[in-house]
Every structure is written in C-alpha cells, then in structure tokens.
Amino acid sequence: MYAYDEIDRTLINERVSEFRDQVKRRLAGELTEDEFKMLRLMNGVYLQLHAYMFRVAIPYGTLSSPQLRKMAHVARRYDRGYGHFTTRQNIQFNWIKLADLPDALEDLASVGIHAMQTSGNCTRNVTTDQWAGVAPGEVEDPRIWAELLRQYSTMHPEFSFLPRKFKIAITASAHDRAAIKVHDIGLRIHKNEAGETGFEVLVGGGLGRTPFIGKVIKPFVHGRDILSYVESILRVYNQYGRRDNIYKARIKILVHELGIEKFAAEVEDEWLATRESSLTLDNEVVEDIRSRFSYPHYQKLSDTPDELAAASADPHFARWLKNSVAPHQRTGYAIVTLSLKPVGGPPGDATADQMDAVADLADKYSFGEIRVGHEQNLALPSVARRDLPALWRQLDKLGLATPNVNLVTDIIACPGLDYCSLANTRSIPIAQELTRRFANNDLAELIGRLHINISGCINACGHHHVGHIGILGVEKNGEEFFQITIGGRADEHAVVGTLIGPAVPFAEVADVIEDIVEAYLALRARPDELFVQTVERLGVEPFKERVYATR
Amino acid sequence: MTSPLQQKIKITGPSVVTANRTWDGVVIYRDAHKGWTTDLAEAAIVRTADDARALLAESTADDVGAIGPYIAPVAVNDNGTVEPGNLREQIRRKGVTIDLPASA
Ligand code: HEM
Ligand code: SF4
After folding, report:
1. What domains lie within chain A, and their CATH numbers?
2. A428 vs B98: CB contact, 8 Å cut-off?
C-alpha cells in the first residue's frame, strides 16, 4: 500500500471544498451548465442516460480494505447499493445525485481516494498490472513508477489541456496484464546489461474509432530519465496533436500520420534539449517513493500445506484452485482472483455488501490489500496457500468464486445502452446471455482461454478490438446489431481482431458466438491450441463460413 | 452553443423535449405549462418543426432546472397514450433492461 503525504491529502481536501462550492453555485443558478460541465468532469462526474455517473480512480489498481469499505459506503449511501469496476482501474457509480456528490467526494477523501484524472483531456489514471509486486518473475514493482507518474502528471499545468485524453499503462512482467500496447504510452520495465532499471517505451496505441497497436519509440529509457522522456512525448503531442477534429486528436493518429520514425526524431530532439532538468529522478527520490509503499510481512510457509491437499478432494474447490488461483512471488502464498462475472450477472459489478465482505476477507487473508484488474475482476494479492480452502468457502457464499477466470464467461463489457448516453446498443444483456450459454464449467474448461469483449459503440470502452472474440454494437434502422471480430488480443502479442462479416441482430449474437466456438473446437490442432492460435493459423475464413453458411 | 432558434430542426413525427434534472440527473420532459415533469404522459407533444424549435428554445432557457434538453421522438397510440419512440428513450423512461445487482 502507498501512504499519501501531506501535500496529496491537502490537495484532495481542497478539491472537495472547491467542488462543494461549485455544486452550490450550479444549483443556485450562478453557474450555467456550460460553465459547470468542465468543473464536474474534472471531478469524475459525467451525465449518463438516467443520472449522473461518478468515476473514481483506483491508482494502479491497489485498494486498502478501509478504501474498499468506503466505496461500499458510497454505493450504499448515495447510490443504489453497487458499483461498477471498469477496464481502467476505476470504479463507477451510476445513480448518484449532483447534490450528494460533494459529500461522497468528502467521504472518499477521508481514505485518500479521489476522482482526479478520471476525465478530461489530461493524463488519466496511470494503470498497471493488478499483480504488481506479487507476480512471479516481475522485474520490479511497477507501482513505484506509476506513482511517480501520477505525482508528475496530476494537475500538470502544461498538460491539463492536451488535444485529447492521455492514457499510460505500465507492466513489469513478460506477460502483459495491463494491455500496454493499446495505450497512448505503454511502458515495459526491464533491465539493461548493467542491471539498471529502465523502460521500453511504446507510443500511439489506442482503441476507439481507429484502433492502433502501440509502436516501440525507444527500446530502453533509463529509470532516471523516464519523466523527462514522457514529458518530451507529451510536449510533441501537445504541439502537433490535432485540435480541429476530435476523431483525429489522439496521439495514435499523430504517430500514424507522421510515422513512428519522424515522431521519434521529434521526441528525441525535444528530449536531448531538456533531459537534464529537474525531472531527472535521482535514486533518492525513487527510494523515497518506494519507502512509502508498505509490503506484507510474509511468513515462511509451505506451497503444499495439508489443508490444501485435503480440500482438493472436493472437485468444486479443485476447479476454483485451478482457474482462479495463481502462483505468487513468495513460497507458500498465492494470488487469488475474485470473479465479478457470475453466470447471468453484469460484468464488473459488485454490491456494497460484497465490497464490505471482500474488505473483511482481505484483512483476514491478504494483509488488507485488494487489487482491481482491467478484466473487471478483483484480486486478493497475497493469500497463504493453507488459507485457500477457508477463503474459497467464504467467497463461494458471496458469489465471488465463479471458477471462470480467463475462460469464455470472463467477459469484459462496457455499460452500453443500459446506462451510457453515447451507446448504439446494449452490451450487458449480451454478456449475460453468453454467460448462461457457456455456464457449464466442463465446457468452459474444454474451450480453454478465450476472451470475449463487448462495446456498445465505436468508442471501444469494452476493448472489443482486442478481444479474442470482439462484439461491437451498431445501430441499423433503429435496431441493435452487432459486428463480430475474431483473433484480437491485448497482451504482449497485441493485435486488432478481424471482422468476420455483416453485423447480426441482437437475438442472434449468442448463437453466432456458439457457432464460432464450435467451429474452433472442431478445427483446433490440439486440445491446448488456444482459440486465438487457431484463428492465427487458419485465418477468419473457416469461421466466417460456419457463421454465415446458414444465415 | 448555437441557439435552438437558429438550429435546423427536423422532426419526422410526434416529439417531446427531454432532459435530465440538474440536481439529481433524473429524466424529465418539458410539459405544456413551461415546467418539467418526470411523467412522459404529461409531456408537451409537438408535431411541427416550428413548434419543436419553440419548445426546445423555451426548455434550453431553463438552464438551472435541466441539463442538455433535446428533441426525442414519441409514438402516440390510438387511445392517446404516449410511448418513447426508440429503444434509447424507452431505457431512459423505464430504466435499465437488466436486473440491478441487489445487496442482500
Ligand atoms: C459515461 C460512460 C462513458 C463515456 C461517456 C465514455 C466515453 C468514451 C469515449 C468518448 C471514448 C473514446 C475516446 C477516443 O477514442 O478518443 C472512450 C474510450 C474508452 N473508454 Fe470510455 N466511456 C464511458 C465509460 C467507460 C467505461 C465504463 C469503461 C471501462 C469499462 C471505459 C473505458 C474506456 C476505454 C478502455 C477506452 C478505449 C481506450 C482508448 O482510450 O483508446 N469507459 N470512452
Ligand atoms: S463503448 Fe460506447 S457505449 Fe460503451 S461505455 Fe463506451 S461510449 Fe458508452
């Protein structure tokens, strides 16, 4: 966990009282909506179909148990008893009243939580691997750097009005769980030959209307230079990024139009001129940040305790252990993913009661820490393996032990037309229907790793482009239709999926997905050839044939 | 923002003006008495572009009470009851099409 210092606490509290005053003036008619809109957006307050929506940041996906309890409190007191965890390590409350928002913000501020960087054309909440600090094989904890970037970018005067929003993600593991290749800047931590920490820097990734996979702009930037290098990218973008056309304003378009070589050369010129600045991070600064993170006092425990062997006789437990529990850096510990994808439920939603219960379980079993990942699940990062059976029984009662992590029903979906004012179509009901179709756990395991991602419009909040199967809602003559892509992926081999053919109506989507999955099962070369690998080997044709032959 | 009086407005059938209420965000409709209602049945219904423009202009003028007024299509049944004209407006009127996650 990271402990905010006095500067942060003061800043957060000042923001709350400022916003309280702004809301008061808005409700009294002293501010017009035009004037107020930017102020509310700066505090994470959007307007959706039925109500205001309140987006709260979960920096680098790490929450303490008191913070999660406070989220539960906000959900219960000011909303309808639940919250929605998003793909960008944020939580959204869907029914909050403007008049209540200052109180909600104040309650959250008491535990160091805020809504800065969740909206607007600034650097957004910097995201990272939800297994940061506990993933085996990790180079080092990426949250140190995420925190440095957070401090650097929060309310940065030069970069608060960029041409468009700006998203940075960091990973320190070979397997990328943070989708860095589809971010404006992706950072992969690695070491050079001298053993020094640095970053492979990618730029120009993004989803939305025009998806791009990020390109490497510099293979190694030393840790001490990362802020000045990021600043050089921001400066070039700020200068040349298009402000005339919102669809062309993201950095990905600039990188695409200039070409990565030219863009890199611009950045290099800027960087060489400015790198020896106050932004250079000496070791002391980095170590100071590192020292503000507290790490668990791990015990010496066995990886194969008796409790685990005994419980594994229960096939339900054994299945959960296989699908939801991952190895930890420390012997005797494990990382446990809490699926927010129950059969028939909206992906990513958790009730206030669940949040409270998870906070209690985190205190009991995981050093009081909870993680939030971009797949819209939660995790308890450091659970002693001997406690897994007891934890499982309690998660099961809470509906948080669906053994489907990374399987076909672990679906990412945006809020879609049930909530979002920009949507063409609904996405949650499609996800719900698919979880019912594939509810059989044996079938899901037979299929293996398969990510289905759903967005209700081209903005791609549900990451449809990089789903193994992507589903995008489009409107045709007032009816909901869906385009299906296959073969996308969001990890270190990130690629944008390929459209298989004409859009299909709402009622047929689940049938089409079943057809695609059946075709895969018949076509795969081996039981462990993943869906994406089969698509890579054979192309989309055989799937297309299967889907459209009878339609 | 372009004033509604200068905007080109086209409507294809009976329409209402709808918005969200400022203090709580709730869906509201402009009524025929220069006020707002949460009940679609009480909404003022316009059938010509001129009437729509006038209703929108009057609604937009109430910046304190409502956010983002716009014209939305409705269907008027034979018995006079009014229904939203598309799925989006149905969802705005009736709420989400799914069960909300309920705290036990
Ligand atoms: C009121 C609700 C929301 C609104 C108005 C909204 C708006 C948008 C817009 C306009 C874009 C396109 C930006 C661009 O291409 O320049 C976008 C992208 C995105 N949003 Fe949302 N969004 C909403 C909810 C969400 C939710 C719930 C999530 C997570 C589940 C999310 C995550 C993302 C992501 C990951 C992208 C694409 C990545 C990228 O920036 O290229 N958004 N959103
Ligand atoms: S993808 Fe479209 S429909 Fe879905 S949340 Fe984003 S803006 Fe709304």
Report:
1. 6-109 (3.90.480.20), 142-291 (3.30.413.10), 306-398 (3.90.480.20), 412-548 (3.30.413.10)
2. yes
